[in-house]
Amino acid sequence: MAQEVERYRKPTRVLHWVHLCAFVVLFLTGLILFVPGLAALAEDSWTRVIHRVAAVVFIIAPLVYMSMNWQATWRGIKEAFIWGADDIAWLFAAPRYYMLCDEKAMPPQPHINAGQKLWWFIALVFGAVFVITGLIMWFFKELAPAALLQWMVFFHDVAFIVSGAMLFVHVYLSFHPLMRPLKSGPWNSMIGRGTVSVEYAKSHHGKWYDEVSKGKKEA
Q1: Can you tell me whether residue 81 is helix, strand or coil?
Q2: What domain range includes position 97?
Q3: Largest Cα–Cα distance of the chain, in whole Å?
Q4: How many domains are contained in the chain?
Q5: What does the pLDDT look like over 133-187, one tens digit per residue?
Q6: What is the DSSP track for 89-102?
Q7: Which helix (H) or strand (E) segment is 6 a member of?
Q8: What CATH number should be reported for the domain holding residue 109?
Q9: Are the C-beta atoms of 85 and 177 separated by less than 8 Å?
Q10: 11 lies in some domain
Q11: Under 8 Å CB-to-CB from 94, ≥6 apart: which residues?
Q12: pLDDT tens for residues 68-112?
């Protein structure tokens, strides 16, 4: 059996899947409201009820996680907003890596690479936009000025488009052959024990693996 190293702890994995499920439900029910041709599916406002239930889960799940895992939360937030030489190197190497399957083109990476960091950044920023605009449209619909509500709808829609597009990119790249998706790579790290093979860790997140080997764990 290949040697493995823990990449994500159980609380992180649970949050990932709960939040993802909530987002997918929000995306699909929001799509029904966003696309005029699907308006018939929104009859009797049942999709709005489902949308709001999913929104509650979308908001509460991270808050519960944060209250129980503050250090991991703060470390993750810093990862999304601090960019450096490793990220620039990844951006230059990414075309050869993903289009030509040139694995040697990718320099050693830390815990998350620039692509993952961009997705995480978008999740944080536009997640906040979703929450703020959604709460205003939900609870202040009768009180807020019409102009404010129109702006909230606009920013909510922008967050919907950007986040939805990036979700498809995120899923697509996770299935890339070089990511070893179903054996020792990212899917394995989010399912089961949350581990990746040592070989995968060294080839895709070499700097992170060096830290783990020295006893500095990431989650």
Answers
A1: helix
A2: 4-213
A3: 63
A4: 1
A5: 999 999 998 898 999 999 999 999 999 999 999 999 888 877 766 655 455 667 7
A6: HHHHHHHHHHHH--
A7: strand 4-6
A8: 1.20.950.20
A9: no
A10: yes
A11: 106, 114, 115
A12: 999 989 988 998 999 999 899 999 998 888 888 787 888 888 988
